[in-house]
Design brief:
Blueprint lengths: L2 E11 L3 H12 L3 E10 L6 H7 L8 E6 L5 H9 L6 E5 L3 E3 L3 H10 L4 E8 L9 H11 L10 E2 L3 E2 L11 E3 L7 E5 L19 H10 L3 E12 L5 H4 L1 H19 L5 H17 L4 H26 L5
Parallel strand pairs: 1-2, 1-4, 2-3, 6-11
Antiparallel strand pairs: 4-10, 5-11, 6-10, 7-8, 9-11
Helix pairs in contact: 8-10
Amino acid sequence: MVQILPISALVPTRHRPAAFARTLQSLAQQSVQPIEMIVVDGSDDDDQTQILCQNQIPGLITQIQYYRATEIGAATQRNQAIAHATQDVIWLMDDDILLEPDCLKRLWDALQSDLQIGGVSAMITNQRYLPPGPISRALFQFLHGQPETSYAGKCIGPALNLLPEDNPNLPEVVPVEWLNTTCTLYRREALPQPLFSSHFTGYSLMEDVTLSLMVGKQWKLANARTARIFHDSQPGDHKNHSGVLATMSLINRHYVMTQILGRRSPSDYIKLIVLQLFEVAALLQSLKGWRSLPAVIVGKAEAVAQIMASKSLGNGT
């Protein structure tokens, strides 16, 4: 007998009905399910996702509410979705994840294990923290300002966010400093209003870091290591232009560093510059990286210009 939990799942989607169907099928196999799912669809003249949401999926008890997006973008579509949510626990999830058995139950149990936990994320089995090599470890120590046995789950220096570690020697619920939006439960009372700032548009890089850092100022954050998913990440127009992503990445990282973490000293900016140089140097390790190098450099230069222009206007973002 499937147990229904008082959870509102929020799913932004666009042009990915096949991947979303696999996500729903994996949810239908869970031992517990959310009472409702709010789907905000940004597809252009395509009713496949709407038909999917309206059709009966064997084993899926969750009630799906389908809405057309009034504005396109991961962050803004989640903002639209939460306006329709009725429950006190909010499940932020992507439309291209595959839930392993008991994933949601373990997320729920982790959230209930401590009333001070405001948010808890699942372990992404194909996107995990790996122990850094000598160069990366030196970089992390420089950015963080001190050595650590592990940097897993931390957000260090100029808002460099590192994934949690999938280590069987760790407890099932592991404290972390930030959470993704791929598969995460939040207490609604812990969430800001609006959910995401209007600063985040389109692909909305680092909106998850921003949200979780804001929650983490007053609540504990954790990773439920045994609540596991596979992120069946899909291609999209928003991921295809390396220059555009380079611009957005730097602008949004600067925003998180200065506006959320309050790190605005000269040393913080030096660390941000070093991180950008490291990212450019990392491209030189592959042919694909070399091909994208000119666009990335132009993209980062554009970001610097936008940041400087913003500072000259006095808003500091």
